Amino acid sequence: MSxxxxxxxxxxxxxxxxxxxxxxxxxxxxxxxxxxGADRGPSAVVxxxxxxxxxxxxxxxxxxxxxxxxxxxxxxxxxEVAGVAVWSANVGFRDVPLRDLAVARxxxxxxxxxxxxxxxxxxxxxxxxxxSRHVLFVAIGTGIAAAHVVGGSAYAGAHxxxxxxxxxxxxxxxxxCGCGQxxxxxAVASAAAVGRRYVELTGTPAxxxxxxxxxxxxxxxxxQVWRDTVDALADGLRTGQALYDAExxxxxxxxxxxxxxxxxxxxxxLRARLTFHREPRLARAALGDEAGxxxxxxxxxxxxxxxxxxxx
Length: 312
Ligand SMILES: [Zn+2]
Description:
The strands form three sheets. A five-stranded mixed sheet has the order 3-2-1-4-8, with helices on both faces. It has a five-stranded mixed sheet with strand order 11-10-9-12-13, with helices on both faces. A three-stranded antiparallel sheet has the order 5-6-7, covered by helices on one side. The model has no long low-confidence stretch (mean pLDDT 94). Helix 5 (191-202) packs antiparallel against helix 7 (220-244) and helix 7 crosses helix 8. The protein is 38% helix and 24% strand. It is globular and about 55 Å long. It contains nine helices and 13 strands. By secondary structure, the protein is α/β, with parallel strands linked by helices. The structure holds zinc ion (ZN). Zinc ion (ZN) is lined by residues 167, 177, 179, 181, 184, 186.
């Protein structure tokens, strides 16, 4: 890539779009945030995505830079090969050929990716998994999803739906999950589930971060909720390790904001559950909520020569 070349990166979430111009070495040149406005319907969201990307291309050129490719990350079920957002409840997409629409509008190569998978790629190449070849990135937020990244590339599965660690049943007969099953990891240990459980026990609304802080401060019921959460997560990660034999598990998403308050007890609980499996290194995600846009940038850079390669 020539000097002054940048890629346009968009991480499209249910509430906001994080957008960036990123250089070939993976550093952000410029970042922006926009509202997704998912309540306006899928066509309006597509129009916003295209106009944000177009605006960034204009800004790059106005600043003397050359936009060379576009990466777009979207949640849900994504067919990365066809460039189609197959199904995304948060954003309202169903069978949207987003890559071709973006190519037509912008006249640049475009890569479409899954938000958690590209976040995993960013953590593996640039963040907490750097230097490890086998990385399992686990995002614990409103839901729970994972990305299996090997040699800097994430595996999407046959139908674009790999890594749904959140729907491993860890508490048979437990709380009902959004997917319809009872006792999924996501229904027990997502940030949303932590808040729900705490309000059930105490009648007091609290975010997962509040619960973590109160547990750390010695509040009994918060401590109970937090211990139950850590135990359920350890059950899920044990299954994850049985499936993926990861070298490092990178824990991201809102729940990881608890830092050592999550990672330390989770490491101990996972260690206690492992039998013949090798213990993975457990690390807190390093890129925060920029992982998605940086990962989208890496997808775009992979489309052009000279981008950041996996460091192996
Ligand atoms: Zn489920």
